[in-house]
Fold these 2 entries.
Entry 1:
Amino acid sequence: MTNLSTLHKSRTLCLVIGCFLSGLLLTLPVLATSGDKTIRERIKERRSDAQPDVPITKPGDYERSLLHDGVNRHYRIHVPRAYNPATPTPLVVAFHGGGGDSDYMAQDKYYGLISKSDAAGFVVVFPNGYSKFRSGKFATWNAGACCANARDKNSDDVGFVRAMLRKVSAELMIDRQRIYATGMSNGGMMSYRLACEMADTFAAIAAVAGTDNTLSCAPRKPVSILHIHAANDDRVLFNGGAGEKFRDESKVTDFISVPATIAKWVKQNQCGSQPRRVLEKPGAYCEQYSHCAGAVKVQLCVTETGGHSWPGGSKPRGDEPPSQAISANDVMWDFFSQ
C-alpha cells in the first residue's frame, strides 16, 4: 500500500509540474512579443505591481516610480501641511540641475522648496532626470540642445512628465488650472521645453539660471514666463555661451543668452515691447512685460551676484554663495499667484 500511495503522489506531482511548465512555455512567447517590451521589462512591471506605493493619506513626503519608455523613472512628492483632499491644490514641478538628482533638489537647506510648499500650500513634485546609473545620480534633462546623456540618448522626458502628472493627479486633488514648472540650470531649460510642448498643462514656468535652449517651440497657447539669473553667472553666461567651469563642453551647448530668451517669449506671447520695473532693491531688480496674449506675463529678475545658483538658497561647496537680495521661491510664488 505504501508503494502504491507513493507512486500515486509521484504521478500527481509530475502532472502538476507538467502543467506549470506548459503554462510557462505558453507565457514566455507572449512576454517576448507583447508590444516592444522585453521579458526583463515585463518582469520589472510585475515587480512594481507586486510592491504598491504607500497611499497618500496625510501630509508628508512620498517616493514614487513608473516605467516609461523602457526606463524606471523616479520622483518625490511633498504634500503640504494644509492639504485638503476635498480642495483642488496648486502643483509645482521642480526640476533639478544637470548632474544632480531629485533628492538633492528636495533638500530644504539648499533650495527651501519644501518650506515654501508648507507656507504657501502647494504640492511640490521633484522628478529625477535621465541617468545611466541605477541610483539615479548624475542625472540630466533632455531640454533640446542640452544636456549630456539625456540629450544624447534623446530621453523622452516630456513623455515622462506627462505620465508622472497623470499618476500624481490620480492620487491627489490637483488644481488643473494651477500647474507650474520651475528648475535650476538644466532644470530651468527643461521648464522652457515644457512651456513649448505642454502649454496646455503648465500655466507658468520659473527658470533659474537656465535659458531657453529648445530646438523647436510651438506652444498651443500663451504661457507666463519668469526668468531669474545672476548677472555674473559663470556657467550659463548671462550674455550667452558656456562658462569655462564646464570641464567637458560636449555635455552642454553654446547657451542662448538671457536677453535673447526674454525677447523670444515677449514675441511668442505677443507682449508689449516695453517692460516696467516691478522690483528694485540693492543687488537685484525685476522687470515685467505685460499686455500679452491670454493675459500672461513675462518677467525677468536679475541679481548682481550669486553666480550659478538659486537666490535665497545655499550651497554645500565653497564657490560663490547664492545672492540673498531676493528669494527665488518668494518671487516665483508671487509670480505664479498673479
Note: The beta strands are 60-68, 71-79, 89-95, 123-127, 174-184, 204-208, 224-230, 276-281, 284-289, 298-303.
Entry 2:
Amino acid sequence: MSVSPHSRRVGRLLTAPAIIMLFAWMIVPLAMTAYFSTLYYNLLYPDRTSFVGLENFTYFFTYPSFWTSVVNTLLLVGSVLVMTVVGGVAISVLIDAHFPGQGIVRVLLISPFFIMPTVSALVWKNLLMNPVSGLFAWIAQLFGMTPISWFSDWPLFSIILIVAWEWLPFAILIFVTALQSMDQEQREAAQMDGAGAYAIFRRLTLPHLTRSIVVVVMVETIFLLNVFAEIFTTTSGGPGDATTNVPFLIFTQALLEFDVGAASAGGLIAVVLANLVALFLNRLIGKSLTA
C-alpha cells in the first residue's frame, strides 16, 4: 500500500517538533563545548578569559596524564568486555538447562545490573575489598595469607572487577534471551547423532549467540567509555594516575583545576574517540548481521 505525498508531508510536520527539540538538545551543548574549547577560561580567574584557538587541545594532548588515561580507558573497556562476554556465555549456557529454582537463580544473577554504580562501588570498597574488615581479607586470613590492599596494590584491576560485576548481568540477560529462541530440534538431532556437549556448544550454541555477542559488545563499549562513578568513589584516579581514565581526567580539569577551556577540549576529544569506536562497531555489527 503506497503512502500519498500529502500523508508524508503531514507525517514530517507532526514529527518536526520532536526532531528539532532533539537536535537542539544535542547541538547546543556541543556548540558551547566547542566555543569554550577555544578560550582560556578558568573559573578562578574569569576576568582573564581570552581567545587561545587550539592551544587547549595542544595542552590536553601534552598533559602528563592524557596518554595514561587513554591506555587505562582501553584496558578497562577491553578487560570488562572479555570478562562479561566469556563469563556471560558460560553462565547463560549453564542456567539454560532446567533445574529446581531456575527462575530464582536467573533473577539473582540479573539483579546486580539494577544497582547504582556508586552503591556498587561502596559495597566492593567497604564490604569486600577492605584490607582490614573486608570479606576477601577474612578469606585470606582464613587460609593463613596476607590480605591484599586491593586499591593500593591492584587499583585498576579492582575497578575492572567492580565494573565487570555490574555489567555481567546485562550480558547474561541478553544471552539467556537469545538461547530461548534456539532451535531445540537441531540440538536433539545432534545429540541423537552422538555429538557431545562441547561439539553442540561449538557448532550450534556459539554461532547462534554471535549476533547477541556483537550487540553486547556494542552497548557495553558505549557505556564503558564513560565509567566515572566507580573510580571517583573508590580511588579518585589514584594512586598516581593508575585508575585515571579519560572521563575522570576531564572531570579533574573542569572541577578540580577549574580549567573549563581544557576540559571542553578534552570533552571534544572524547566525543571524537567515542564516534570512532561507534563507527567501528557499526561496521562490525553490519558484517555480523549480513553474515
Note: The chain is about 75% helix and 0% strand.
